[in-house]
């Protein structure tokens, strides 16, 4: 039963690692475990053959090979029996090899499990980071004509997914945007937006994602580095905030 459970564990861990980096390296623990399982199977097969030799002689591992008078038994093949017994339980015997292999298999299983946990943790981290850069966190509430934001292609209703290094996980109620814009005068800020497509049909096409390049600057003819009254509101207030053409909501931000 122990062997069957071990094999099941190897198969289970292989399934865990099929779509991960566990199986991308020639020295991966799953491959090692299968190689060890093959060695274990070979040892067990040889032991079974030797035990069959003993059964053919009518003896096991412990029966005496001398008769009641102390003479070697004449009714069995003594050489075959001694050879089989020595191969099974001798100093360099198969049972020692089997014990060693089982220990290595256990270590390989621990390595597989540890690697699976590492991969799953990395996958969760990657998914979190992906979500942070693909989830809108602000909506363009108003945009100033002829402003740098307008020139970059920003439109009212656009949803902001990423503003330079700022995303849904670190925008600090949108206040981080003002700080970044203030530090980036004359420098390009890449802004990833999501724009709802317009359609005359009942079924709207999916929104379009694009990257705009903003360059905060003065002297464009209005206030602010990107163009006040360009303003953003948090996505979670989209339904509760009355959109004004030139005024930012109390919880929004003017650029």
UniProtKB/TrEMBL annotation:
Annotated ranges, domain PDZ: 106-197
Keyword terms = Chaperone
Q: Which domain of life is it from?
A: Eukaryota
Biological process annotations from GO: proteasome regulatory particle assembly
Pfam families named among the record's database cross-references: Nas2_N, PDZ_6
Q: Can you name a GO cellular component term?
A: nucleus
Which Gene3D superfamilies does this chain map to?
A: 2.30.42.10, 6.10.140.1710
Family named by the database record: Belongs to the proteasome subunit p27 family.
| Name recorded for this polypeptide | Probable 26S proteasome regulatory subunit p27
């Amino acid at each position: 039963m122990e062997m069957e459970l071990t094999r099941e564990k190897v198969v289970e861990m292989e399934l865990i690692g099929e779509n991960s980096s566990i199986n991308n390296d020639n020295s991966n623990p799953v491959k090692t475990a299968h190689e060890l399982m093959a060695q274990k199977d070979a040892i067990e097969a040889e032991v079974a053959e030797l035990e069959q030799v003993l059964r053919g002689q009518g003896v096991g591992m412990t029966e005496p090979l001398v008769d009641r008078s102390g003479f070697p038994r004449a009714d069995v093949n003594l050489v075959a029996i001694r050879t089989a017994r020595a191969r099974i339980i001798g100093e360099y015997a198969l049972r020692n090899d089997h014990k060693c292999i089982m220990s290595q298999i256990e270590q390989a299983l621990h390595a597989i499990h540890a690697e699976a946990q590492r991969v799953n943790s990395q996958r969760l981290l990657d998914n979190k980071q992906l979500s942070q850069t693909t989830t809108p966190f602000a909506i363009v509430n108003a945009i100033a004509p002829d402003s740098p934001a307008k020139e970059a292609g920003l439109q009212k209703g656009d949803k902001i997914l990423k503003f330079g290094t700022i995303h849904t996980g670190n925008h600090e109620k949108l206040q981080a945007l003002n700080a970044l814009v203030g530090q980036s005068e004359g420098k390009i800020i890449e802004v990833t937006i999501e724009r709802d497509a317009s359609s005359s049909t009942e079924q709207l096409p999916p929104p379009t994602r694009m990257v705009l390049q903003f360059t905060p600057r003065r002297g464009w003819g209005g206030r602010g580095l990107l163009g006040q009254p360009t303003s953003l509101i948090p996505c979670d207030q989209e339904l509760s905030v009355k959109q004004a053409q030139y005024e930012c909501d109390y919880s929004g931000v003017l650029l």
